[in-house]
Amino acid sequence: MYATTDTLATTPATQGGRSRWLALYTLCAGMLMIVLDVTVVNVALPAIQDDLGFTSSSLAWVVNGYMIAFGGLLLLAGRLGDLLGRRNVFVGGLTVFTIASVFCGLAQTQEVLVIARFVQGAGGALTAAVILGMIVTLFPEPREQAKAIGVYAFVASAGGSIGLLAGGVLTQAINWHWIFFVNLPIGALTAVLAIRLIEKDKGLGLGRGTDVPGAVLITAALMVGVFTIVKPAAEEGWTAPRTLVLALMTLILLAGFIVREATAANPLVPLRIFRSRNLTGANLIQALSASGMFGIFFLGSLYLQRVLGYDALEIGLAFLPTTVIMGLLSVRYSEKLVMRFGPRRPLIAGLVLIVAGLALFTQAPVGGTYVVHVLPVLVLLGLGAGVCFPALMGLSMADVKPEDAGLASGLVGTTAQVGAALGLAVLATLSATRTAGLDAAGKAPLEALTSGYHLSFAVAAVIVAAAVVIACTLMRPAKQPVEVADDSEDLALEAA
């Protein structure tokens, strides 16, 4: 179940009610800034390409540079939070991210932008990796913790669609530089509020877990793995020589990491943490659901743009129903569902709704309309994500010891990021291959393009269906679901 006061007794959870909720909103503001940056850049890529002269292949590094650093450093960043203090790592990450954002906005050459994006990804990893661990520390009481995790889950999962809208507005109203400059006031304010509102935790100290070889091995493995997914696998194919060599290198580094962690006196990732069925299962589900959802946000945007003719701003507005539904469920109702039924049943129900939405998207035709063929899909996805992701976040931190909270938080982010990269690469490759094959067979261009998207939507549904199977078989049900009164107060709104 969720963390209790006893399990978090060694960490600061003594703040008053109102200040704890303000601290939560501060943490979520930091997370929103990180999540927005993933999709806000996608909308601005054509403008960046025209301004700085990127080729089509080199333009991918504006996204890949961020993803490789972010995905590769999340696990290490989570452990650093346990050792150095989570607030210190959070504020430090915000500082790095904000300064790098300024350099991104000022960039006048391709090299400066790509390097700044890599540094921005590193700052994002430091910021995002410790947030969930800080939330379960601030809210040890199960009901409040469920509500707080609901707020966080909404920000983490809905931020991508908000980024599409924000990117379209900023790029069309001003220019692409402002998608980065806007991070300066937000980052600075969030860092100041974090210092004022979040109590400083001491951390275990570097002497308790300075596993340098382990840190090098896992960071190298994740970076090489993410690079393999987003570059050679996506561009040259999964059986290309370079893809296979890099994949083998990733496996060797992972094997070395596991051996190191099994024998180290103070391992970076104690293997005992995976004895928890809920933690292990939640991370598997996180990877699979992120694979399906992230790929569909990307390919769904392409369907709206290339098939239905939407511009950047219209795409952002199109995804708003998903964001609104997720927000309503995550913030107001997910806590009641979790407390009444336990986290397992809402998790399964939400995943089933996501599968239904993805399956329905396979029926969107060339001459489709938004209300008939797109809106029902987005409603199902919003309902599913709003119900399942808060429960999943809670389960991922179940039974986690206080000294491992940062590690577990970083692990959740790592599986989501790697799952998203893998899902995007697989789905985009399948879509492009199907489209190319149909083009060669003489199919009309829009029909070939739509058929490629349909294949990706169907595969995404199968991937999330696998997450349903894991949730049904591996996840441990809640022991004592709690009945929630109909007139229960909205603690977050009341506290604010």
From TrEMBL:
It is found in: Cell membrane. The chain crosses the membrane at residues 21-47, 59-77, 89-108, 114-139, 151-170, 176-198, 210-230, 242-259, 280-303, 315-334, 346-364, 370-395, 407-432, 452-474. Its main location: membrane. Keywords: Cell membrane, Membrane, Transmembrane, Transmembrane helix, Transport. The keyword Protein biosynthesis does not apply. It is a multi-pass membrane protein. Gene3D superfamilies: MFS general substrate transporter like domains, Multidrug resistance protein D. It holds the Pfam family MFS_1. PANTHER family: BLR6921 PROTEIN, MAJOR FACILITATOR SUPERFAMILY MULTIDRUG TRANSPORTER MFSC. This is DHA2 family efflux MFS transporter permease subunit.
